[in-house]
Amino acid sequence: MEMKAKIAPSLLSADFACLSEQLSWLDELNVEYLHIDVMDGHFVPNITFGQCVIKSIRKCTKAVFDVHLMISDPMKYIEMFANAGADLITIHLEAGSQKPEEIIKKIKSYGKKAGISIKPGTSVESVMPYIHLLDLVLVMSVEPGFGGQKYIPGSENKIEILNKYIKSKNLNCIIEVDGGIDESNIPLVVSSGAQLLVCGNSVFGAKTPKQTYQKLQKVIESVSVQF
Ligand code: DX5
Ligand code: ZN
Predict the structure, then answer these.
(1) For residue 202, what are the CA distances in angstroms to 13, 14, 21, 82, 147?
(2) For the domain that residue 211 is a member of, what is the CATH number?
(3) Which residues have their alpha-adjacent CB atom under 5 A from ion ligand 2?
(4) Between 148 and which of 57, 137, 161, 201 could a Cys-Cys bridge form, CB atoms 3.0 to 4.6 Å apart?
(5) pLDDT tens digits for 15-68?
(6) For the segment 154-171, what is each residue's pLDDT rounded down to a tens digit?
(7) Would 142 be classed as within a structural domain?
(8) Closest ligand 1 atom to Cα of 144
(9) How many domains does the chain fold into?
(10) Catalytic residue among 40, 66, 135, 178
(11) Of the candidates 144, 98, 150, which has an alpha carbon nearest to the alpha carbon of residue 118?
(12) Cα–Cα distance for residue pair 3/42, rounded to 1 Å
């Protein structure tokens, strides 16, 4: 599905003491996606939050809940996150003991969209056998686990390869990029074919998240994409 590139603000960098306040501007600006990082302290060396928080913030916005599961054995938790209000559930290719196609099937059985994410060290070819089943591929441009890291140069090459592959097969799968995205590299990732840009530190870490989001969205609009 061809879509204009969009910023997906990442909850990870929000102030958890006042989440409803932090999310109050999303609907006003028609922010389409909210990126939500779930970490289990096992698949990644950090722990964030689970379905209780997701359920609570579901009433704060109508944005698509783009839930990024950085957890081991994701199959076990699909139902929980589907019921908590996730709209799109992304698992890591490196995480599951189960076959990816089985997990995708499970996600879809709840009427949710399915994504697969790959870490910086995972080849882009390894996700290709599943792309025809997916709504989204998430290219990690930092090692998953923490916000505020620096973009790993060269991640755009993976985006470019994926974009060409998806186009050549005429598939309905969008490319999301996650990690270290800010004003300086938005033109690069968008021109490489990324359509959903996760921004944690660069939006919720900013003094004025709402204005910063608007500014970053304008940067996207200034990039002329030629494929
Ligand atoms: C990192 C998470 C990211 C994080 C990105 O493991 O998957 O979604 O929120 O944060 P920034 O934009 O600060 O790199
Ligand atoms: Zn993420």
Answers:
(1) 9, 11, 18, 28, 10
(2) 3.20.20.70
(3) 37, 68, 178
(4) 201
(5) 999 999 999 999 999 999 999 999 999 999 999 999 999 999 999 999 999 999
(6) 999 999 999 999 999 999
(7) yes
(8) 6
(9) 1
(10) 178
(11) 144
(12) 34
